[in-house]
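Here is one chain, start to finish.
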Amino acid sequence: MSDISTPADRFNKSIERIDAAIALKEADRIPLAPFLYSVVQNHEGSSYKDLYYGYREAGDAALRFYSKYPLLDANLFLGFTSGKANELAASGMIDWPGRPGTIVADHCSHQVIEQEYLLAEEYPEFLDDYTGFMLRKYIPRAFPNLKGLSGIAYTPTIVLSTSLLAPMCTPEALEAYGVLAEIAKADAEAAQLTAEYQQKIAELGLPPLVTGAAQAPFDILGDYFRGTMGIFMDQLEREDFIEKACYMFADQQIAALQYFNFVPLPVKRVFFPLHKGMDSFMSPAQFERLYWKPLEKIMTALIEMGVTPILYSEGKYNTRLAQLAEVPKGKVVYHFENVDMKEAKRVLGDTACIMGNLPVYLLEFGKKEEVVDYCKYLIDTCGPGGGYIFDTDAVCEGAKQENLEAMFETFEVHGKY
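Its structure:
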């Protein structure tokens, strides 16, 4: 199917295909961008653990994998995370492969350990003094080896010397600074090698799908501060606090994403994993007020900067489709895990590009014929008229080789418009 002569030609053609799909137009074929994250490592002699501790092994595995499949139109290489840095901080919100004492297998992704780092009665303090709360309470709770920061506070008084700095100079604080210095070194190494391998993958002719990441403000509050059970209770008892926190997070993220105005990038797209907005998690009115509106504020700011939001929904979204259609035409991409794709195409086809829905369980445990049939169904249902990017329903961590090949072979035969 591909007659691209050089890596640069392939790179530009892939961007053209995805941009056409986002604009609800047809190119020469449907763009292909499955989220084959740790599959990339696991099929090439590496593992998820290497993303934390063996950067070269994981990066070289990615290069081998992407070299094998020229049909791909984008890579979702998210880079490396320092296992050493997380050990130094004693990170409590995740368990990860390779951590001393972990039960997570080398070929599995990190596991989230939800904790209540923001207590219900602390909302006023959290909202009135966010930076102070993060410094004195959140960081020491989430990263116990940095508990020495918890004493940093300032009391207004006469300032005629360095006495104001005393809370920053306690033995506990100085110890925490030493740990931070080691964390900075470890994270810098991971960032440097991430950039190196992103460039190498680009040189193969494969552009990134996204060049930024953000989250729905409600998910930030529920995932990292209150936990799922805490945010459940808050929806019943503290809606006003949730709303204030969500708009605060929205403004913070808009400020952090301003680099799109200044940094030259081959693509301008931001990835939003949507964790807690699925059907039945909240009422339509709560979804509109607490989830959608703060998220929409970020999306609007990005669109005004010429950036495309890619909303990676998780769970069922059948009852949310009408609200998702309330965006500017041809400016947003919606990924779906568990949605009636025929209905999604009907409701959103004239407004937004859709992607996703190929079940990862079929790639991991299904028969080759099942993979072929489902790929054909998605292509026939979502492809006509443009506005579709072929993708899996979720992050794929394992796949039978024959099923992976079946996906690519089916797409090569049937992926043209």
